[in-house]
Amino acid sequence: RLTTSFNLNCHLSDAGTVFPGYLVVILSVLMVTLVIVVVAGNALVIMAFVVDKTLRIQSNYFFLNLAISDFLVGEFSFFFALSLPRYYFSY
């Protein structure tokens, strides 16, 4: 007979480390804050490049490319890490 029980106070990572619930909440809030800052900051850089035509010089295209790639990483891979807490909390 297979029985499963869930403990809402602690989370177990793949490495076997038990994290208290408050630590998981704090780390989740920090991760969401990081996602917001990364996405908003890079969106501002992209918008500045689109709006201000004086920024369109050859050396600034590197920064535009960097902002676009960082925006995409912030938009997609952070959310995958948040949706898989065992992956995210397994330090």
From TrEMBL:
Annotated SUPFAM superfamilies: Family A G protein-coupled receptor-like
Compartment(s) of residence: Cell membrane
Organism: Oryzias sinensis
Protein name: G-protein coupled receptors family 1 profile domain-containing protein
Molecular function per GO: G protein-coupled acetylcholine receptor activity; G protein-coupled serotonin receptor activity
Keyword DNA repair: no
Membrane-spanning intervals of the chain: 22-50, 62-82
Domain G-protein coupled receptors family 1 profile: 41-91
